[in-house]
Amino acid sequence: MELVLHRAYFEEGTNGALFNSGRFLCHTIELPWNDNKRNISCIPEGVYKVEPRFSKRFKHHLILKDVKGRSFILFHPANDALKELQG
């Protein structure tokens, strides 16, 4: 599976559209770009390995692997990037 994320960067956050094999999956929200700083920045653009994961808090979601300088990067449901996300 190859997921492609198209992003638009804003001061308040990063909005995106996620696609799988050219088919739209969902809209995304991330923190604004702040030089990849942990807990205050979205991750850099790049190619990452994605694996399924389950937790009590988010249920079924995805985790990104091998993000340089970062760890535990999750794709999970959220509505407000600044209030609900940590990176």
Rg over C-alpha atoms, rounded to the nearest angstrom: 12 Å
Strand line-up in the sheet with most strands? 1-2-3
Number of domains: 1
Task: Please estimate the helix content.
Answer: under 10%
Sequence stretches where pLDDT stays below 50 over 5 or more residues: none
Overall geometric form: globular
Number of strands: 6
Describe this structure in words.
This is DUF5675 domain-containing protein. This protein is mainly beta. 5% of the residues lie in helices and 45% in strands. It contains 1 helix and 6 strands, in the order ββββββα. Strands 1-2-3 form a 3-stranded antiparallel sheet, with no helix packed on it. It has a 3-stranded antiparallel sheet with strand order 4-5-6, with no helix packed on it. The longest helix is centred in the last third of the chain and has 4 residues, at 81-84. The mean pLDDT is 87.
Topology, element by element:
Layout: E1 3-9, E2 14-20, E3 23-30, E4 49-55, E5 59-65, E6 73-75, H1 81-84
Antiparallel strand pairs: 1-2, 2-3, 4-5, 5-6
